[in-house]
Amino acid sequence: MGVATEGASSPWIRRFHPSDDAPVRLVCFPHAGGSASFYFPVSRSLAPAVDVITLQYPGRQDRRHEEGIGDLHDVAEVLTGELRPWADRPLVLFGHSMGASLAFEVGRRLERAGIVPAALVASGRRAPSRHRDEYVHRRDDEGLVRELKELSGTDPGALGDEEVLRMILPAIRSDYRAAETYRYRPGPDLSCPVWALVGDRDPKVTVDEARSWGDHTSGGFELKVFDGGHFFLAPHAAEVNRLLADCARDRVPRP
């Protein structure tokens, strides 16, 4: 069975612009409350030079009737199994916010299985060892919506539609719980190069916390600071896409 067929049967995998002849694959991990469609513009920009896989977590969109995600370590185990059939060519892992933590944990597991990612791009997230006590997932619905508005990562129209809110808030709360209860477990980290991307006004991560990603790889490390807040990706989409394309072409930092 080919990987395209396997991916089509997996509830976790989305390929908006399949590029079977591309020499490298980019795997995109959404943020808390995000869905695979968040990365549709990335896929459109990089195809057909890069085969872009985007992940769809349970509890949203076509998976809205499923229970939301739980412990990130458990989710990483599942996703590692889902991605192994796609490792017939180099994998670049790209995650934003909670997705960066998840991409890191998947990368560790892939390396233990003998599959070394080509690179990890960790965006809008402090390094795994830089913990903060956060409890947004314990807020009431109004408090959770206020957080989403402040970070500007959710469609404003959805936040003003009570029916849509009732559908998406359980998944968002589940995601926040998973992100905020995540704890780094000491052990072998990565040997692949790592890029850390951060907005200079991000309330969720400081530049120093992002710089600590370099402590989690024996490969090369580079920090890229953008003008903006937590979702700096949108106004800097072209530059971020160029960086991802460079990673896919092996133009990555080395020790």
TrEMBL record:
Keyword Mitochondrion recorded: no
Keywords attached to this entry: Hydrolase
Record GO biological process: lipid biosynthetic process
Domain (Thioesterase TesA-like) ranges: 27-244
Pfam families found in the cross-reference section: Thioesterase
Molecular function GO labels: hydrolase activity
The keyword Acyltransferase is assigned to this record: no
Gene3D superfamilies: alpha/beta hydrolase (3.40.50.1820)
Highest taxon listed in the record's lineage: Bacteria
Family to which the UniProt record says this protein belongs: Belongs to the thioesterase family.
PANTHER family according to UniProt: S-ACYL FATTY ACID SYNTHASE THIOESTERASE, MEDIUM CHAIN (PTHR11487:SF0), THIOESTERASE (PTHR11487)
Name this polypeptide is given: Thioesterase
Organism of provenance: Streptomyces filamentosus (Streptomyces roseosporus)
